Amino acid sequence: MSVFRSSSLAPEQPVLELCHVGRRFVKRRERNRSFQDKFIRLLSRRNVEQEDFWPLRDVSFSLARGESLGVIGPNGSGKSTLLKLITGILTPTYGEMMVNGRICSLLELGAGFQPDLTGRENIFLNGSIYGLSRAQMNARVESIVDFAELGDFIDTPVRHYSSGMYVRLGFAVAIHTDPDLLLVDEVLAVGDQSFQHKCMSAIQRFRDSGGTLLLVSHDLGSIQNICQRAIWLEQGLVQSAGQPTDVVMDYLRDQALREEQAERLRQAQEGARQEETEAGSTEAGRWGSGKVRITQVMLCDGSGQETGAFASGEPLSVCLHYTAAQRVEQPVFGLAVYHETGVHISGPNTQIGGLTVAGVEGEGEVCYHIPKLPLLAGRYRLSVAVVDGRNNETFDYHDRLYDFQVYPDGRGERYGFVTLGGAWRLES
Amino acid sequence: MLPVRDIYVLNTKATAGYPSLLARLRELWNYRELIRNLVVSDLKSRYKNSVFGFFWSLLNPLGMMLVFTLIFGVLTPNVKIEKYPLFLLCGLLPWNYFSTSVNGSLYSVVGNTNLVKKVYFPRAVLPIATVLGQLVNFLLAFIVLFAALLIFQANFSPWLWMLPLVLLIQTIFTIGIAFILSTLNVFYRDTSMIMDVVMLAWFFLTPVFYAADIVPQSLTVGGLTINPQRLLYIFNPMSSLINMYRDLLYWGYRTDLDFFVRTAVTAILVFVFGFWFFHRYADRFGEEL
Most buried pick, A200, A376, B168, B280, via CB within 10 A? Predict the structure, then answer.
């Protein structure tokens, strides 16, 4: 385990390099904070009950000068631990880490502000926490004051600041320290719209002027907009690394599948519970005379694989297995797609689709193929039904019994439920 | 490969020790601005919302001087120390500097949890800033001391120029102790409770309000003859320090060179040990707090 830190930046070297870095935490049942605990432990000779916990297992990557890297991953995936290792608040348990330059983190804006000091005094205090000299701060103080937009409040003790003013001042100081490596962690979620926009522009300016950037965010859009590379961190490991669009796609697909599995598990458990309690009664959300029964519903992707998560713009097929004990004339098979909020989006059926089924008997399958799924990211519910086309007798109706997930395709369309597939053209 | 210059290795068990400590000292030097700012903000917030403001630095020793002079005069009417208020101040002010620094240092890391967990900076800055903040107070209190020197028409020693050196030695010693205590208190919060008692005992074992002469020169304990007065100086650097202040300010004398050097060496050793001890555990502050 070793950490190299150099304050001066050698241009030919990566700003940051991690080599198989791992970090362990020991989860103790009770932390022995006092001598009393120590004595009790010595006397009782009981082994300390402890449990290892690895927020980071094996992480390697390097960040060249001027590069911008996005880090994505669910909560608890080790992102914060990674940032703390890089800033030096924590040290790695194993692995090698090299930091070549001065770091500034936008992790905790305004940490270290003294409430009794004025905004201006805190600018100098904060600057010195980041390791800047008085002369360097003197050169920056005017633009910091301008950026923070605090007006007369700059000479008021910060204890009188609103939380927004606090954060604005914190961001203004941090972004003006001209670090070699800027760490950004979800700070963009603070402040009002216009200040968020200003922060974003400042970060982009920093990047465009050759600054090195490491951005941790749940806002996958901004990762794709700002970063040249991205890594997906989960369970302390790098799951995927490369182009932000690809990594984001991998991540979203995985998340959607996982959510789907969890949903299925929940439904299966619920179903089992229901069967136990009300065995024999008709399933909720399902009705019909049963002359034709839909026995299985399969949702398949372009490769024919059954799944519960689909990318927007990719193929989707719904296959309905049916059985009919006796011959039924002219049945109509149909679907209904709902958004999870309950909005009915579409309702195709065989009759409207121009497929005439003369009659069914025994087992069979009817499929509905969507070559390019127009639905945008979200959760959707599916109803399936088979009815009599002539007198509206319902043979079997499954009302919103099937769920599926749609994740974005990286083209960025995200407003509303569907893509209209149109094209923009400039008419002069 | 990595260029050797400007790169220092931190946290590597194999290289922990002398070279790493030098690198740490250099890093600390780069953060001197932060130390300065922390001292200033500490002083500013200390005297905020108080009517007398920094005058408390003067009023406090004056009040204590009054109390001790009265009590000492009543309790020990036989032992007469000439110009007792001056004698007392020469011991009380350095002691106050030491004890307030010790008490402050216990919370210098623990009380800045927010900062330590969120921003990186050399942690040694915190106890150092605490001690230096008290040093400023001590220097202000010298106004009272010099006023007392004039009032009691004490003989100004030609060796008064050594006073800053004595101050420096005390500061080095105190920072060393502050390093150790601020670290211990992160891991064991009992440290502050224990230190309450320790500091009380230390106060009485230091010739602050009495003269070291009243401590017997020889004492037989279980057939062993010891010299408590000498032991007081050997085991308690604060005795030596206060003795040095008295030599310069009260007796108008100079401190013997060997005594001076011995105290300086002790202070430096305590500082180096404290610095080493602090950095041995400073990397774990972020997770322990």
Answer: A376
Q: Is B282 on the interface with A (CB under 8 A)?
A: no
**pTM attached to this predicted model:** 0.75
3-state class (DSSP) for residue B220: strand
Residue A127: CA atoms inside 13 Å, Cβ hemisphere, count? 24
Torsion over CA of B7, B13, B15 and B17, rounded to 10 degrees? Answer: 110
Range scoring the smallest mean pLDDT among A46-55, B43-52, B124-133, B252-261: A46-55
Euclidean distance between CA atoms A372 and A357, whole angstroms? 25
**ipTM score here?**
0.81
CA distance A54 to A78: 9
B31 touches chain A (CB under 8 A): yes
| Nearest CB neighbour to B188, from listed A2, A25, A34 | A34
Q: Which residues of chain A have pLDDT under 70?
A: 1, 7-11, 28-50, 107, 187-191, 274-284, 410
CA distance A267 to A273: 10
Of B11, B12, B188, nearest to A33 by CB-CB distance is: B188
Tell me what percent of the residues of chain A surpass a pLDDT of 90: 23
**Secondary structure (3-state) at B224:** strand
Nearest to A129 among B30, B34, B48 (CB): B34
Taking CB atoms and an 8 Å cutoff, what residues of chain A touch B30? 7, 131
Q: What single DSSP character describes residue B157?
A: P
Instruction: Label residue B90 exposed, middle or buried (CB < 10 Å: 0-12, 13-18, 19+).
Output: buried
Reduced 3-state DSSP string for chain A: CEEEEECCCCCCCCCEEEEEEEEEEEEECCCCCCHHHHHHHHHHCCCCCEEEEEEEEEEEEEECCCCEEEEECCCCCCHHHHHHHHHCCCCCCEEEEEEECCEEEECCCCCCCCCCCEHHHHHHHHHHHCCCCHHHHHHHHHHHHHHHCCHHHHHCEHHHCCHHHHHHHHHHHHHCCCCCEEEEECHHHCCCHHHHHHHHHHHHHHHHCCCEEEEECCCHHHHHHHCCEEEEEECCEEEEEECHHHHHHHHHHHHHHHHHHHHHHHHHHHHHHHHHHCCCCCCCCEECCCCEEEEEEEEEECCCCECCEEECCCCEEEEEEEEEEEEEECEEEEEEEEECCCCEEECCECCCCCCCCCEEEEEEEEEEEECCCCECCEEEEEEEEEEECCCCCEEEEEEEEEEEEEECCCCCCCCCCECCCCCCCCCC
Min Cα distance A256 → chain B (Å) is: 33
B7, B41, B283 member nearest A4 (Cβ): B7
User: Residue B11: its pLDDT value, please?
Assistant: 40
Tell if the CB–CB gap between B7 and A2 is shorter than 8 Å: no
Residue B9: what pLDDT?
Answer: 39
Looking up tokens 């605990």 gives: A37
Distance CA A82, CA A103 (A): 14
Q: Which of A32, A91, A93, A166 to probe the B interface (max B CBs under 10 A)?
A: A91
A4-43 core/surface letters (b: 16 or more CB in 10 A; e: else): bbbbebbeebbbbbbbebbbeeeeeeeeeeeeeeeeeeee
Q: For B266-280, how does the pLDDT look when each residue is reduced to its tens digit (9 = 90+)?
A: 999 999 999 999 998
> CA–CA separation, B181 vs B179, rounded Å?
6
- Closest approach of A1 to chain B, Cα-based (Å): 7
Chain-chain contact of B115 with A112 (C-beta, under 8 angstroms): yes
Asked if A393 contacts A407 with a C-beta cutoff of 8 angstroms, the reply is: no
Burial of A137 (0-12, 13-18, 19+ CB in 10 A): buried
- Taking contacts as CB-CB distances below 8 angstroms, the residues of chain A near B283 are 90-91
CA angle, corner B182, sides to B177 and B188, nearest 5? 120
